[in-house]
């Protein structure tokens, strides 16, 4: 198969696809307290459309699939869709991002399915801070999910958004999870995808400040080689079983090696997290378009990809700043 590249010579191998924009939490950094206006069910891609789209993209060279939301398990029969995806020719790895609230009953089936990894959103290990950040009291189900994932030896990455005045005291406790567990804890710069825009005039907790804070507590921190196309700067602490990462999601330092595409729950192709849509795939899938026609339009979109997140943001329609919810975009 001919490798798939964008107009900047970057290979495209990774698709993040949102199966829903709905979520059972109301995280401070993701959406307003009263939620967002959810899409009517008819506006979501059907499972059949998702399966067809992934089949087309896999035929072009996309081999890694991550299902996101919203919260994926809010959508009924998700496990059936995941099983079908694993059977698509060309799909090598299926991954999942979840908040963990509804995930525990499915952990055994995820293991049996051969899930490559699970990213668990968990910004704090304190129940009260969890309630404040998520605006829901669901800490215990999430921790139960984490423990089950570890018991089933499923590769787990904990995603923690670092927020001024919210969870700075959780950085060290989260790192301590790596001492005796083979888990990767990733600290992420807060982004303006909360349905409201930036919470702060300037971002205080940049990736460099996060790193300095960690080094002040763990001066023996060791830099690891970053995996190819990784968004995280990866580190370990001698004697710890797991490791940690820092993702410069707002500073956007990793764009030069980005290999990912996004598809929102309503079927909008995003060739960059910061753009406002490159192609209406739902219209193509529901129109009288052949597979070859859709693949040609995908190729065209890939050849007009922004070089980085800053350029993508500048080219947004009417130059409006980023303000949509991450739940709408697909995490």
Automatic annotation (TrEMBL):
<feature type="binding site">
    <location>
        <begin position="260"/>
        <end position="262"/>
    </location>
    <ligand>
        <name>GTP</name>
    </ligand>
</feature>
<feature type="binding site">
    <location>
        <position position="23"/>
    </location>
    <ligand>
        <name>[4Fe-4S] cluster 1</name>
    </ligand>
</feature>
<feature type="binding site">
    <location>
        <position position="66"/>
    </location>
    <ligand>
        <name>GTP</name>
    </ligand>
</feature>
<dbReference type="InterPro" id="IPR050105">
    <property type="entry name" value="MoCo_biosynth_MoaA/MoaC"/>
</dbReference>
<keyword id="KW-0479">Metal-binding</keyword>
<keyword id="KW-0408">Iron</keyword>
<dbReference type="GO" id="GO:0061799">
    <property type="term" value="F:cyclic pyranopterin monophosphate synthase activity"/>
</dbReference>
<comment type="similarity">
    <text>Belongs to the radical SAM superfamily. MoaA family.</text>
</comment>
<dbReference type="GO" id="GO:0006777">
    <property type="term" value="P:Mo-molybdopterin cofactor biosynthetic process"/>
</dbReference>
<dbReference type="GO" id="GO:0005525">
    <property type="term" value="F:GTP binding"/>
</dbReference>
<feature type="binding site">
    <location>
        <position position="29"/>
    </location>
    <ligand>
        <name>S-adenosyl-L-methionine</name>
    </ligand>
</feature>
<comment type="subunit">
    <text>Monomer and homodimer.</text>
</comment>
<feature type="region of interest" description="Disordered">
    <location>
        <begin position="312"/>
        <end position="331"/>
    </location>
</feature>
<feature type="binding site">
    <location>
        <position position="30"/>
    </location>
    <ligand>
        <name>[4Fe-4S] cluster 1</name>
    </ligand>
</feature>
<dbReference type="GO" id="GO:0051539">
    <property type="term" value="F:4 iron, 4 sulfur cluster binding"/>
</dbReference>
<feature type="binding site">
    <location>
        <position position="97"/>
    </location>
    <ligand>
        <name>GTP</name>
    </ligand>
</feature>
<feature type="binding site">
    <location>
        <position position="191"/>
    </location>
    <ligand>
        <name>S-adenosyl-L-methionine</name>
    </ligand>
</feature>
<comment type="function">
    <text>Catalyzes the cyclization of GTP to (8S)-3',8-cyclo-7,8-dihydroguanosine 5'-triphosphate.</text>
</comment>
<feature type="domain" description="Radical SAM core">
    <location>
        <begin position="7"/>
        <end position="220"/>
    </location>
</feature>
<dbReference type="InterPro" id="IPR013785">
    <property type="entry name" value="Aldolase_TIM"/>
</dbReference>
<feature type="binding site">
    <location>
        <position position="157"/>
    </location>
    <ligand>
        <name>GTP</name>
    </ligand>
</feature>
<protein>
    <recommendedName>
        <fullName>GTP 3',8-cyclase</fullName>
        <ecNumber>4.1.99.22</ecNumber>
    </recommendedName>
</protein>
<dbReference type="InterPro" id="IPR000385">
    <property type="entry name" value="MoaA_NifB_PqqE_Fe-S-bd_CS"/>
</dbReference>
<dbReference type="Pfam" id="PF06463">
    <property type="entry name" value="Mob_synth_C"/>
</dbReference>
<feature type="binding site">
    <location>
        <position position="16"/>
    </location>
    <ligand>
        <name>GTP</name>
    </ligand>
</feature>
<keyword id="KW-0342">GTP-binding</keyword>
<keyword id="KW-0501">Molybdenum cofactor biosynthesis</keyword>
<feature type="binding site">
    <location>
        <position position="255"/>
    </location>
    <ligand>
        <name>[4Fe-4S] cluster 2</name>
    </ligand>
</feature>
<feature type="binding site">
    <location>
        <position position="121"/>
    </location>
    <ligand>
        <name>S-adenosyl-L-methionine</name>
    </ligand>
</feature>
<keyword id="KW-0411">Iron-sulfur</keyword>
<dbReference type="InterPro" id="IPR006638">
    <property type="entry name" value="Elp3/MiaA/NifB-like_rSAM"/>
</dbReference>
<dbReference type="GO" id="GO:0046872">
    <property type="term" value="F:metal ion binding"/>
</dbReference>
<feature type="binding site">
    <location>
        <position position="272"/>
    </location>
    <ligand>
        <name>[4Fe-4S] cluster 2</name>
    </ligand>
</feature>
<dbReference type="Pfam" id="PF04055">
    <property type="entry name" value="Radical_SAM"/>
</dbReference>
<keyword id="KW-0456">Lyase</keyword>
<feature type="binding site">
    <location>
        <position position="258"/>
    </location>
    <ligand>
        <name>[4Fe-4S] cluster 2</name>
    </ligand>
</feature>
<keyword id="KW-0547">Nucleotide-binding</keyword>
<feature type="binding site">
    <location>
        <position position="27"/>
    </location>
    <ligand>
        <name>[4Fe-4S] cluster 1</name>
    </ligand>
</feature>
<dbReference type="GO" id="GO:1904047">
    <property type="term" value="F:S-adenosyl-L-methionine binding"/>
</dbReference>
<dbReference type="InterPro" id="IPR040064">
    <property type="entry name" value="MoaA-like"/>
</dbReference>
<comment type="pathway">
    <text>Cofactor biosynthesis; molybdopterin biosynthesis.</text>
</comment>
<dbReference type="InterPro" id="IPR013483">
    <property type="entry name" value="MoaA"/>
</dbReference>
